[in-house]
Amino acid sequence: MTNGTKMNNQCCTFYVNGCFFGVNVLRVREVIRAQRMTPVPLAPETIKGLINLRGEIVTAIDLRKMVDPDKGFKSKESDPMNVVVRIGDNVVSLLVDEIGDVITIDQDNMEDPPNTISPATRKLVESVYKVKDKLMLVLNVDATIQTQAEMSL
Amino acid sequence: MDEDMDDDFLQEILAELINESNEGLDQVEKDLIELESNTYSEDTINRIFRVVHTIKGSSGAVGFNTIMNLAHKGENLLDNVRSGKIDITPERVSLLLKLLDALRDMFESVETSGNEGNTDYSDLEESLKYASEPISEMETQVTSVKEGTTDQNPAPDRFSDASSGATDPTSNINEVPNTALKKNGETQGNTKTKSSGKPISESFIRVDVKQLDLLMNMVGELVLARNQITQQVSLISEESVLVSAAQRLNMITSELQQNMMKTRMQPVESAWTKFPRVIRDYSSKLNKKINLIMEGKETELDRTLIDAIKDPLMHIIRNSVDHGLEGPDERREAGKEETGTLILRAYHESGLVNIEIIDDGRGINVERVKKKALEKGILNQSDADRLSEKDAVNLIFHPGFSTAEQVSDISGRGVGMDVVKSNIEKIGGSVDFRSVQGKGTNLKIKIPLTLAIIPALIVTSANERFAIPQMSLLELVRIGSEEESSKNVLDFICGTPVYRLRGNLLPLVSLNEQLGLPSPDLSEENVEDINIVVLQSEGKPFGLIVDEINDSEEIVVKPLGDQLKHIPAYAGATIMGDGRVALILDVLGIANSSKAMSKVNDEILHTQENNNHVMNSEQTMLLFESGKNGRMAVPLSNVDRIEELGKNEFQHVRGEMVIEYRGKILKIIDLSKYISGLDPVEFCNKESIQVIVYSSGERRIGIMVSEIIDVTESDLSIGETKNTPGVLGSYSIRNTITDLIDLEAVIDMAVPSNQKMSA
Question: Which residues of B are less than 8 Å from A49 in CB distance?
Answer without folding.
Answer: 581
